[in-house]
């Protein structure tokens, strides 16, 4: 999983992606979301590159939800699109968008 910033984020919030109980497991916390600028890739805690190699795979089991956590203050503007690359591990393995 990774994110691509379409428009620089506004607001000095922390930002991380994970699951309940381990909220930065998938994408490490960015200490200040304004550091994520247009066209940068969110793959680690220091999103400064526009070209990145994908890291090791993460296995998420038993219907866990992937969550984004915004903390310390609000984000007021910007665009961040997430991409989830996955392979089902069982016949009922699936990824769906939650609201």
Give the helix/strand layout.
Elements: E1 2-10, E2 14-19, E3 22-30, E4 41-42, E5 67-71, E6 77-83
Antiparallel strand pairs: 1-4, 1-6, 2-3, 2-5
Q: Give the helix tally.
A: 0
Shape descriptor reads globular
Chain-averaged pLDDT:
93
Give the terminus-to-terminus CA distance: 18 Å
Report the sheet-strand fraction: 35-45%
Count of folded domains: 1
Main sheet characteristics: 3 strands, antiparallel
Number of strands: 6
Helix proportion range = under 10%
Backbone structural class: mainly beta
**Low-confidence sequence ranges:** none
Give me the side-by-side strand order of the main sheet: 4-1-6
Query: What is the N-to-C order of secondary-structure elements (H for helix, E for strand)?
Result: EEEEEE
Round the Cα radius of gyration to an integer and report it. Answer: 14 Å
Quick recap of the structure?
The chain is an all-beta fold. The chain contains no helices and six strands. It has one domain (2-83).
Question: What does this molecule look like?
Answer:
The chain has one domain. The protein is 0% helix and 38% strand. The protein has strands spanning 2-10, 14-19, 22-30, 41-42, 67-71, 77-83. The strands form two sheets. It has a three-stranded antiparallel sheet, with no helix packed on it. Strands 3-2-5 form a three-stranded antiparallel sheet, with no helix packed on it. The protein is globular. The two termini are 18 Å apart.
Features:
globular; three-stranded antiparallel β-sheet; 0% helix; 99 residues
